[in-house]
Amino acid sequence: MQHLDDSNIDELWKSYKDLWKGYHNNGTVRCMNVGYWDDYTLTMKQANENLYCMFAKRSGLLALTEADNLLDVGFGYGYQLVYWRKELGLKCAIYGRNIDAYQVAYAGQLLTENGCQDIVLSQGMAEELPYTDNFFANIVAIECVFHMESQKFFSEAYRVLKTGGMLAYSTLVDANELDNQRMDALVNDLRLRNNFALLPEHHQNNNHDEDVQFLAELGFTVEVLDFSDHQMDLFSDGDGRKSLFVTAVKN
User: Which CATH architecture best describes the domain 9-250?
Assistant: First the structure.
C-alpha cells in the first residue's frame, strides 16, 4: 500500500475528493466529519462546529467541572478540542487519544498555538486505553467508532468510565460498498504507517445494531438519535447513508 503524504490534505483524502465538491471550506481546515447541517450552515467548518456543539449539549460536557476528566477518542487534527476549551469554555481536564502520530503532532501544535497546552494527547489505538479504571466522567468519539474494532473499544470505555459516566459517539450507517472501500483504504493507511495490524474489509462488516446490543450487555443504558435530517449528502451516489448519535451511560 502506498503511503499518502499527510502534509497535503488533498492527497491524504484523495479518495474522498467528492466530499469537498461544491463547498467552500474557509481555508485549510483539516476536518473530515460529515458534520451537522441546518438552514444556516454554509461551510464544512460551520457543519463541524455545529457537531461539536451537539456533542457538548447532548453529552453534558458543559456541566463538567474542573474535577472531571473528559476523553476524546479519535480526535483527528484536534479542532474540536480547541473549540470546546476556547469557544465553549469547558473547565474539565481534557485528554485525547488518536491512532496516527502525524495527527497527534499536528493537534499538539494547534493546541499550543491556541493556548490549550493543558490538553493531554496520546498516540495509540482506542482499543487499548492507557488510563486507570473509573477515571473519566465522559468519553466522546466523533465519526470514528466505525473505523475501530468497536467492541474492544466499548469494553475499554466501560472500564475507564466512572459509574454514571457517559460514552457518546456519532456514527454513519448504511454506507454503500464504494464508500466502505474508500474508508478501508484511508484507515488502513493510517494503521500501516503507525505499525498497527490492518483491518481488511472492516467497514462493510461493521454492524451498528450489534454494537448497540453489545453496549447494553456490557452494562450501558443506550439511546440512539437519528439526525440524518441534518446530514448533507456530500457524495453524488445518494446512497441513503444515515447519521446517528449514540449515548451510553455506565450503570
Answer: 3-Layer(aba) Sandwich (3.40)
